[in-house]
Every structure is written in structure tokens, then in C-alpha cells.
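Anyone up for a design puzzle?
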């Protein structure tokens, strides 16, 4: 088994708390840290909490009544959050269309409509506006593939097959579309 040092464990905890968007149980944090130790994970978590308190005024890591932990904006700043928080860049339906394109690329507009329905035309327009997909035309046939911007934005580098493997290890895409 790979031994993980404290710096790496702290980084893993920070990432888990930041990206989860929800409270995490101690068991989830132990798993994320890679320490396999409740005591060590709690010590590292306390270090992160102290570092957060000294570095930020409006952000905290809070322990909730159910003993889970969450990275959040302090409640007294919720009015400001409501004013400046933005909507997601891409709707859920458009994101599903994008994931389908990423997995099936190159894919024709006809195939997309058959799988995702006629709403796909609005999704394609939005995805092209964001420069996440590009359209290639061969006569009347239009095919779609992802762009370099898509790869960079989602942290995917490599060829199409590598991206497909990284995005969809289980090949269960059709269950979610």
C-alpha cells in the first residue's frame, strides 16, 4: 500500500472539502485523506481549520451537529452570497448532451436528436457559443466533437480515447441520458 505524507493528506482533505459542495462525514474524510486513521485525520483536519481561520475572514470549515464537516461561507455573509452567486454555466440537460458528445465523438446531429431529443439543438447552440464543441460539415451531414477549450476547462489532456476512458470508466453513460 502507498504511504501518504501529511502534506499530501492535507491537500486531499482540502480538495474533498472544497469540491464536495456538501458536508462530509468523518469516515469520508478519513478515506479522502488516505490516512486510514481517525486520530491522524482529525489532527490534520484541525490544522486545516486553524489555517482557514487565520487566512480567511468570511470562509470557514464548520463541524455540523451530526459531526460532519463542511467548507462554507460564514452565515453572516449569506446576504452577499445571494447578491453575487451566479447560476451554473451549463444546465444539467446541456451538460448531459456535452458528456454524450464527449463519449461518442464524432457524433452526428441526427444521432444526438435520436438519443437526446429535439432540445439538443438548443444545447448545441449553447455549447458552440461556449466553444466546448465544434461542428464539422460534410454536405448535409453535421458532426460534433469537443474542443481544446473543453479539454482544458475540464482538466482533460490527451487524445479522444484517453478522454473517453477518463470520463466514463464504467461505460454507463446511456443509463444517465
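Challenge accepted. My sequence:
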Amino acid at each position: 500500500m502507498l504511504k501518504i505524507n501529511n502534506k499530501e493528506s492535507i491537500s486531499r482533505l482540502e480538495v474533498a472539502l472544497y469540491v464536495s459542495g456538501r458536508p462530509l462525514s468523518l469516515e469520508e474524510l478519513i478515506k479522502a485523506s488516505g490516512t486510514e486513521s481517525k486520530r491522524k485525520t482529525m489532527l490534520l483536519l484541525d490544522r486545516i481549520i486553524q489555517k482557514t481561520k487565520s487566512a480567511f475572514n468570511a470562509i470557514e470549515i464548520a463541524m455540523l451537529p451530526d459531526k460532519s464537516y463542511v467548507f462554507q461561507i460564514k452565515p453572516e455573509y449569506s446576504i452577499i452570497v445571494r447578491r453575487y452567486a451566479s447560476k451554473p454555466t451549463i444546465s444539467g440537460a446541456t451538460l448531459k448532451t456535452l458528456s454524450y458528445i464527449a463519449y461518442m465523438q464524432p457524433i452526428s446531429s441526427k444521432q444526438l436528436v435520436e438519443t437526446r431529443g429535439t432540445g439538443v439543438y438548443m444545447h448545441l447552440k449553447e455549447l458552440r457559443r461556449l466553444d466546448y464543441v465544434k461542428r464539422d460539415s460534410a454536405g448535409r451531414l453535421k458532426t460534433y466533437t469537443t474542443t481544446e477549450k473543453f479539454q482544458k476547462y475540464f482538466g482533460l489532456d490527451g487524445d479522444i480515447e484517453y478522454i473517453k476512458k477518463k470520463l466514463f470508466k464504467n461505460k454507463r453513460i446511456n443509463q444517465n441520458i
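A detail worth pointing out: Strands lie at 59-63, 69-73, 107-108, 133-138, 141-146.
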